[in-house]
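Two proteins follow. First one:
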Amino acid sequence: MTSPDEHQPELLPGMVRATVRQSQAKARATRARKAAEQETAATDPVARVLVDVPLAHLDRPFDYSVPAAMAEAAVPGARVKVRFAGQDVDGYVVERAATTDHQGRLSHLRRVVSPEPVLSPAIERLSAELAERYAGTRSDVLRLAVPARHATTEKQPSPAPDGPPPYDATAAHAAWADHAHAAAFLARLTEGKDPRAVWAAAPGEDWPLLIAHAAAATAASGRGTLICVPDGKDVARVDDALTRVLGPGHHVTLTADSGPAARYRDFLAISRGARKVVVGTRAAAFAPVHDLGLVVVWDDGDDLHAEPRAPYPHTRETLLLRAGNEDAGALLGGFARTVEAEYLLRTGWAAELSPTRDVARRRARVHVAGAADRAQDRDAHARASRVPREAHETIRQALEQGPVLVQTPRHGYVASLACERCRTPARCAACTGPLELTGPATPPSCRWCGTVADAWACGECGHRGLRAPVIGDARTAEELGRTFPKTLVRTSSGDRVLATVTDRSAIVVATPGAEPTAHEGYAAVVLMDAWLTLGGTDLRSDEEALRRWANAAGLVRPGGQVIVVGDASHPALQALVRWDMSGFAARETQQRLEAHLPPASRLATIAGEPGAVDDALTLLAAPEHAEVLGPVERETKGGTESRVVVRVPRNQGAALSRALGDLQRLRSARKLDPVRIQVDPTSL
């Protein structure tokens, strides 16, 4: 066999020559590219980059060299890729500088992901302050603050609205007419000043409309407004009110369920200054509103305002920090009042903005059913009955005028069972979990493991009968449907939450937080099982119970009735009857001050495996007057967890946060077992 060289001797040398020429051209291009990369920017050649690394001891900006080709794109706030610890990681340019303190050679920026400045200086400063206050890292805060990039959306412009939003001062003052100092508050907003107020709304108040008028007053001074509410239902109500007051196209909404493209589009409209009025849930607290003039938090006691991810910032604290940093006004509103809001009034940081008690009493009449002596005389079974006769009569009469809201504390059918004879709680024989009923025709089953217990017998007395001490919304709706057979009964709870209902005659059974709004308000509101709402052992149990009742009572139409089934002697129920939210908050605050509990003190919890918590306590350099309570071990789904509480006087709160931050950095550098640190937890 002959080789190809014998027939075509020029083929092989020619291929070699072509390959050599291609290799030389590629090498020249590579040298030219590297030379261009080595050439740094003529102006401000140093970029300080906040690297997205969740390690506490690396939570600081790092200096990188800016190639000349990236000089215009690598602006402060832009997303970049950098080389860090041998791999490419994301980061944000926080500053361009002429010099660096680094002694060696700086690494170059790998590339500019996008020249869009998505991290504003105000939000960068806020992230540093929140990371220090909550003993976290800035990278964790920025994950909450800046949404994921959507390249296609980023290429689209953000058109500004046609002209400034209108402000009708007459309509605004009419809406706020029942509030004594509202005129002065609105006037200061229109003048570009920064008034701060704590607002307790009256029953039946159209609070989204009042917030919209406050936003319009702020817009009249050329500034922006940031409004944070607990959930999507509230966002929809405020969105509708803003559209009515400002007109369409002057505001945006930010919610988690908007979708990546829509959320990023609205974020860019805010970041570019095309929209200055924003309403959303807790993530909206980081919206980069230009010329911020007013921050609004509605129902700041709702636990939805507490971020469940590290470093666990609270919406109220985030917005109050922003108000201080950006010289903006602040408005904390709700039907009830938290002890934190009351403390702001005590310290003089904010002024009270509330209607008189007479106005609140005219809006709704609140009664306690089945507890007074007169009710006992008229109805011998009033105390034992779950729905006393007075509540039945109120529902019957109110149905002639419109819908009736019935709030029940528990979701489901029958949430717990007990022995009919001795009242011993019914437990599963397999795992000792609580038994429940999921429907009218289903046998009892375990809430933990699902084991069916159709042959259950009481371990104490051997009786096989069961009773239901705790009834859920489904069973409540079933009972009311039997009592009022010709009336439509609807439920709103769990995964099936109604946003609104019509004004037709109907009974709406809802769990706390899932109450839909009626167009003209409810003719009556019935609050069931007050004892169960008050039965918690948490520090905020009474405060939370009153907040839930007040939010439901706030949905009544002017002149409607509110019936509470409970013990009228309890202070929380007395406050609801008198609609004395400020008095109850003042009482709770005074008790906290006497017991050295928040807000009189600052708390932090350290939780994790027992050994890791012990190591953390050994390394913690706590402030001088710190108290360590615990450790206490408790069972969790992941096993045994240990937790300690560290308490300091309020004036040492910043020192405690710094000490916890130093602890996190030390543990991160030594690669010790992780612990979970929460500063000012909403619940203990």
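Second one, unrelated to the first:
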Amino acid sequence: MSRIKHALRLIFLSPSQFLYVRRMKRSGLFDRKFYLEVNPLIHWIFRFFPERHYVLFGEAAGLYPNPDFSPKAYIKHNPDLRGRGLAPFDHYLRAGRHEQRVTRDLPSDGGGLSIPLPKLRGAGANPADYAVVVHIYYHDLWEEFEARLKTLDFDFDLFVSLTYKGDETETLAGRIREAWPRARVVPMPNHGRDIFPFLHLINAGLLSGYKAVCKFHTKKSPHRQDGDTWRRHLIDGILPKTGTRALLERFVAEPDAAFWVADGQHYNDPQWWGSNLNRTTELLQRIEIPVDKDRLSFPAGSIYWLKPQIVTLLRGLQLGAENFDLELGQTDGTVAHAIERVLGVMTDAVGMHILQTSQLAALPAPEPAAPGRPSYVSAFYLPQFHPTPENDAWWGKGFTEWMAATRAQPNFSGHAHPVLPSDVGFYDLRVTETLGQQAELARDAGIDAFCVYHYWFDGQRILEAPIDRLLERPDIAFPFYLCWANESWRRNWDGMSGEVLMEQSYAPGFAASLAESLLPYFNDPRYQRPDGVRPRFVIYRPEDMPDPAAAVAEMRETWRRLGVGEVELGAVLFHVEGESPVEADLFDFWVEMPPHGLVGMDDYLFGGPDGDRMQADVMPTFSGLIYDYDAVRRNSQSARYISKLPAHTIAGIMPSWDNTARRGRDAHMAYGANPVSFERWLREMLKTRIPHAYRRELMINAWNEWAEKAMLEPTQQYGTANLDVLRRNL
């Protein structure tokens, strides 16, 4: 009988109710999609007639007809309407909207920052493999959360951020610290919902280094019919009362899984963009990720487990308090809401995916990973970070690579320039201890040696101070070998045109002189012999030598005559042929040096045959080239490209490439390079290229090419993320 009565009420509205429904439809202010999304318990029949459901039942229950209208708040903030028996939303449609009446509750602090933003310190080694991050806005929910935390069957580091509400916050913070002595408890201003406090921890480096991070918060969602039920479902999904550890280990073992969410919380339909598309697009331009407006997949509810790769990208956004909207109780359209969509686009862009609890549980047990580590890993190393008389004369007093790097200006909206160092700072390579610090970072990440550029011009040296001073310091552990950078130095930095500053003339006898000059380095115990016998030496542009075969023969004969014996001699595969062709078997090995030879005509996003294909706005004065980093990655795996390589080639990879610091508006750059796209490329290389590379070796371009944005060293934008990539995979 009850169901029959409800059905009759649905069909036979009173005249006033019928007119109310018609006004709602005509106004366009009743948001059907929103109403159905936030009220999932509505009977399926009423889901075809949401306006009628609202008029008959929803308004009396306090449900929101759109994100910005609360029936209860409307009556509370407009006391002249109390006791008149009015339908709040109907009054608003007929009169209230024209009178600009208040339609929702506003925070008591008006959305301002109630306490100063805490300055976080103390990033470092993590005692546990996992972190659990809890944001507390509704203080009364802490007991519920604490009970759940005590049931977890794995060790974790706990981080708790609390929206500051005066003395009650201080009291709760004290209780948490007493019960959880290892926890990091951080009172925060009421700003950016649960998202900004989470990013504040990430930006401080406190969430780096974990295998996975869990994030949840005191979600009540007063605009939803099922707020408490929904919150518990979300938390139960990622922190089940039993078996969490097993599921978590499976999540970590799944290399392409970015998020673990409760069932039903992977939203996968472009209808959920709402008013967030533009802001999502703007935010993702900061890390060079385009948005496909016809595709939207994201972890809904802001309660999930996430992998370190996503933590890295969130840090890369470099969002501070100033980027978030004032807190006015919005239910959509803010930066905090856009971040939810950002997470999904990030996940798609780096080739990862979102797993729901039932999907995770159904995964087969992970198979042991096949050993994929290269036998030897090198990184090109630039010694340009100290002043020289020549650079003083050419570029101004005190010039170093840092000056170029710090002067870089963006070439498109969101372009992250200048790129600045973090952990190692603005170093001077005349301080030899710096080389030891760099070597320690590299060794910890799985790098075996630095391939150091050697600048020798018919006996004249430049940038020699760092490596020559190293020879005087046998206590500094810095494994290295040399690469003769034999291009002439030119005014425009690209080595191919412009005024010649220092010419490579290849005077008669140059090969023997060069070979003999290398003996002090070969004799240093830190000079590398990757095969255990021969010292290694690389030539950057062998085709620039007048007679490459004769020069190589002269070098080898000189080394034999001087007692060095055989040298493992290699050359770089350059993308532009020189005047003197080189036979593939002239060298013991060749070295790939991305992006050389890996950019096709179809890969250009700007400056190529298809014109401007950039989603971001390019500066009107920019006349350079922008190509797709992911296309370069794909090209490096293609059978066609690989078939053209000499059989004895060391596989090469680059974390990024962007020479804006050197060439300004004429720059060449790989769009879409970030530590996670770098990791995707590296993982593919370990499977497809390393098994067939020369001696299973890998070369990285580069360790510290800051003016070409090709560096592994820590940056302010991404911290140690590139080194973390190597550490995870090597």
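SUMMARY FIELD: Residues 245 and 534 are 49 Å apart (CA to CA). The chain has 27 helices and 25 strands.
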